[in-house]
Amino acid sequence: MRSSLRRQLLHLATDLSALAAHPDDLGHGFDLLTRSYATPVADAARAALRSDPAIAPLIRERYWGPWPSPAELLALPAQSLGHAYASWFANAGGQPLPDPVLHAGNDGDDTWLHQRVRHTHDLWHVVCGCPPTAAGEAAMSAVTVMQLRWPGSAMLLGADLLHRCLEGPVAGDVDVGQAAAYGLELGRVCAPLLAQRWEQGWDRALADWRKQLGITALVERSPFRTEMARG
Q1: pLDDT grade for 45, boundaries at 50, 70 and 90
Q2: Which CB contacts under 8 angstroms, 24+ apart, belong to 137-142?
Q3: pLDDT, tens digit (0-9, with 9 covering 90-100), for 148-202
Q4: pTM for this one?
Q5: Which of 26, 44, 206, 231 lies most in the core, judged by the most C-beta atoms within 10 Å?
Q6: What share of the chain is helix, strand, coil (3-state, %, to 5)?
Q7: Which pLDDT value is given to residue 56?
Q8: What is the domain partition of the chain in residue ranges?
Q9: Integer distance in angstroms from the first to the last C-alpha of the chain?
Q10: Secondary structure string (H, E, C) spanning 155-223
């Protein structure tokens, strides 16, 4: 085994061990994702996304529409995507990400992909009906595994499931195994989330977006439906 590969595996094992013990360890979580992006599996995943006919046009034009302020989004109709996103974001206690820095050239394709996925992650939460909880993040990791084939997402999901096996379910929370099953099915059924021009439909009803994506019935059966309704 090459020494560079051995070092990479040791770093990933360290991150996975820490996350299996503490799934909310953001430092090791981001470290694992960052390291995973440099793997051959991630290269193959990006190549598949670049060749996807639904996603390729957005990559070519480096599509990025306007992102209104939280106050502007909250002023939209209550059932709209924008209002739902701003409400979810406020409840999650998040902070808006800075505008992306996009580059020209082939290397910019990967920059766009990574920044687009990161920037729209919370929006995907809203569309998929997943709360900002440990189980909700596990479900979104499963969605990302199915739709993007990100190796880091698969490892995060594995750490979540290992923690569930070692510590048991969290009382009063959706079981991580059930959340993962929901996310895998959602990712399989849903139209490509990365291919959506969300910014052109902030004022569209969230229900219309879900219908377009083909996930209405699945979201209605979501293990998070009661929790999201309270939010």
Answers
A1: very high
A2: 137/23, 138/23, 138/176, 138/179, 138/180, 138/183, 139/179, 139/180, 139/182, 139/183, 139/186, 139/224, 140/183, 141/180, 141/183, 142/179, 142/180, 142/181, 142/182, 142/183, 142/184, 142/186, 142/187
A3: 999 999 999 999 998 888 887 777 889 999 999 999 999 999 999 999 999 999 9
A4: 0.88
A5: 206
A6: 70, 0, 30
A7: 96
A8: 42-230
A9: 50
A10: HHHHHHHHHHHHHCCCCCCCCHHHHHHHHHHHHHHCCCHHHCCHHHHCCCEHHHHHHHHCCHHHHHCCC
74 membership: H or E segment, kind and range: helix 70-74
Q: What would the mean pLDDT of 50-72 be, rounded to a whole number?
A: 94
Ranges 4-13, 57-66, 92-101: which has the least confidence? 92-101
To the nearest 10°, report the CA torsion of 63, 69, 71, 77. Answer: -10
